[in-house]
Design goal:
The chain contains three helices and no strands. By secondary structure, the chain is mainly alpha-helical. The chain has one domain. Helix 1 crosses helix 2. The longest helix has 30 residues. The protein is elongated.
Length: 74
């Protein structure tokens, strides 16, 4: 179970949407979380990777180098 405190304006919008569509506020909160969770995971993973690159703990490769290593270069 998860409990959220939302700003009044967001709570009001969510309430209006739920009433207008006959769905629950929980339904829309769950939909919003599911829709954006993958994006948030990708963002945090990218930020973590960027930090490693900037500190020299992770190496980067050009597309050309990867293509050549995989035998895909023309």
């Amino acid at each position: 179970m998860l409990a959220l405190r939302l700003p009044e304006d967001i709570e009001s919008r969510l309430d209006k949407l739920a009433k207008a569509t006959g769905r629950t506020k929980s339904f829309y909160a769950r939909e919003a979380i599911l829709e954006h969770l993958a994006d948030l995971e990708d963002l945090y993973l990218a930020e973590k990777r960027l930090a490693k690159v900037r500190t020299g703990k992770s190496k980067t490769y050009t597309l050309n180098a990867v293509e050549q290593a995989l035998g895909l270069a023309n």
